[in-house]
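Review form for a predicted model. The reviewer records the input and the model, then writes brief findings.
Reviewer: anonymous (R2)
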Amino acid sequence: MKIAHICTIASSHTILLDKLSHLKDKGYSIDIISSKDGYKKEFADKYDINIKFIEMKRNINLIEDLKSIINLYKLIKKENYKIVHTHTAKAGMIGRIAAKLASTPLVIHTSHGLPFYEEQSKIKYNTYKVLEKIASYFCDAISSQNKEDIRKIKDYAPNKKVFYEGNGVNWNRLMNEYTSIDQKQIESLKDDLNIDIDKKIILVGARLEPVKNHNFLINSLKEYNQKYNNNEYICLFAGNGPLKEELQEMIKNKGLERNIKLLGRRNDIFKFIIMADVVALTSIKEGIPRIIMESMSFAKPIIATDVLGTRELVQNDKSGYLINLGDEKDFAEKLNKLLASKELRKKFGDSGKSIIKNNFTEEIVADRISNIYKELLR
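Model under review:
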């Protein structure tokens, strides 16, 4: 059975190729289609999956988007796919339209977190919701990476089948990565970053963009410093994005230059996870955050905002702490508990590792997707 998985940019290959490999092992013939933006040949060559490139823009551009739809239509028609499965909001729009125009027997879209959410302006919220509603007319079913979004999807697409897909990690690969990184590598990394060997490390792995809500984290760290008079930690921001300069200025104004270091995008993120004492994520909303899944796999305790997506992974007071949006005092208090107690960090970390192994692996997700295909084709 020939299937095309479509995403907007090649950077998304990193979150798709593992589960697609498991699907291929189940007997499906799979192509992945995207633009070349972010393509890494050395990464893609590790997988025996065909990759085809069609130019697609992340931002809305009617002329360029029409070109993408036409080129996708031609490719889908030529390859005669039995199923077209789209990912991300932009590819979900143009990919579904192209697939339906090409009379593809089955068209599915996966929501990796809806593009509209309560904290947006009304204009943005309603615009993105209308666009998702329009796109839903061009598919047969929609799946969601988290359970909470299912209700919203059924609301704007009441006549479509909606499934829970979930999200997962490649457990075996992560365990191999974990065992391949020794203490000497961690000490060398600390030395390169000029981090004192005894300092506690908080890691944040997220793009520097508004939805990731770094401002709340910075304010919470300021609160922590003032309340507990403790500077013996460093918080590492791994990621790039449009807010880099704004966040640098905020860090300076809050007097946190000694406590926060911006790393930019890192290809060796696993070393940083292993090096971390605590992993933080203060997003306004998530799909199912990969950085948290990976960190819990490595038995790291989590402190995060109690928001859509994240709370499906983190069990409060069991694998970490969930903090209400805007509650800087609670964040500071819970962070102090984590940094002060090695035993608590281990307890939360061990619990989180078990949660991921039993519920959030790529094998589990691939089984769900295969069952979705079988049900829909019946």
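Findings: Residues 62-79 form the longest helix (18 residues).
Further findings: The mean pLDDT is 95.
Recommendation: see findings above.
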